[in-house]
Amino acid sequence: MLGQKKIRAICDQVLAASPADQTEVVVLGEDSGLTRFANSYIHQNVAESNVELRVRVVLDKHPAARIGVASTNDLSAAAIRQVVETATTIAQHQKENSEFHSLPGPAPIPALDAFVERTAGFTPEGRAQVAGLICQKAVDAGVVASGAFTTGSYEYAVANSLGTFAYFPTTLADINTVVMSDTGAGYADFASLDVQDIVDRGEAIANEAVGKALRSRHPVALAPGDYEVILEEYAVADILDFLGYLGFSAQAVQEGRSFMGGKFGQKIVGENVTIWDDGLSLANLPMPFDFEGVPKQRVTFFNKGVATAVVYDSYTAGKEGKQSTGHALPAPNTFGPLPLHMAMATGNSTKEEMLKDIKKGLWVTRFHYTRVVHPLLTIITGMTRDGTFLIEDGEITQPVKNLRFTQSYLEALNNVEAIGQTAKLERGFLGGNLVPALKIAKFTFSGATEF
After folding, report:
1. End-to-end Cα spacing for the chain
2. DSSP string, 378-438
3. Which residues constitute the domain of residue 263?
4. Does 378 have pLDDT greater than 80?
5. pTM of the predicted protein model
6. Are residues 233 and 184 located together in one domain of the fold?
7. Across-strand partners of 54?
8. The domain that contains 65 carries what CATH number?
9. What confidence tens digit (pLDDT) does each residue in 268-308 have?
10. At the N or C end, where does the chain have fewer CB atoms within 10 A?
């Protein structure tokens, strides 16, 4: 960790070296350790310490800007001058962009303490103790464990020539494991800012994955079709990931590829569904500003089923004469703004209560290899994985072979019959998702497998 003072000095060096009309500096720092295990033993421990410096320059801002971005992890004075020169050269060869208005100016950043010292200083021996517990539980049960345990500290900073400077240090601990039996599999994961949360839950994480691997042995074939389902939090996180990726971005709306387009103020999911993004939530993976240094706003996408808003960066906001909501990604990016801290409102049901009223349905642990079929209809196809069970007359009766689903996620959220009373933090490809389990009246499974 370089720390705020040193990072600010580096940013000042970049800004002083830049001849551009406007210049932005993004610093991404990481000190992390990773312990991997497979075949029920630890086989790898690695550590990474790195700092990436990203420079964006804006030339000829009026009437049309030319923008270039370059990056380096060499922080010497010569390398800093070189990365600025490279970004400037790239900008000189870009097409003019008349829709770019300006980098954002400075704004107050909310104070947020998300740095846990014991996570930052957690040792390989500490990770090995938890991983070893999982491996031993697997060996004792006659199954095989694999997985990974990561701990680290991270720092983010943004500065620009308009006076913006924002700095944020944080930590993260994340563990996941897949446990394999001869004919079944189980899964568990956990993520937190505080590694002690994982240490305290080590045995529970092991028991969840091992227990599910044993219960899923000798699965039976089940015909594809429409089934009532209980989706564990692992599967629900996938739903939020794809909704965020496909439709919760202003750029997706502006390009006519978002399911939110033309639907604001309309009910498009069930009234019991509320989903939002909040970068200040310590229950999630927080960050108080985006990669342009703009303070993050809480944005509600669905409020009791009604489509209400999407996220903006300064570029997409400028197109509509609006203000950025603080959801820019590091430049350059083709995705536009994206939500990185999504959450879904909890309900008042336990998973046991969800089971009671299901005459015939499926318990789904998680999804695998999910892909987009139709973005505007949010039709996604993918597979169940690591624990799929038949529910009959309110009880789990037997494991079933994995099924392929082809399902509109929006349609699924229109058929939510019950919502879990607690939420679990899941890491996704868009950041963190704080999600409950769901009971859904109808979920379409389009194919079967042999495993």
Report:
1. 46
2. TEEEEEEEEEEEEEETTEEEEEB--EEEEEEHHHHHTSEEEEBSS-EEEEETTEEEEE--E
3. 219-451
4. yes
5. 0.97
6. no
7. 26, 71
8. 3.30.2290.10
9. 999 999 999 999 999 999 999 999 999 999 999 999 999 99
10. C
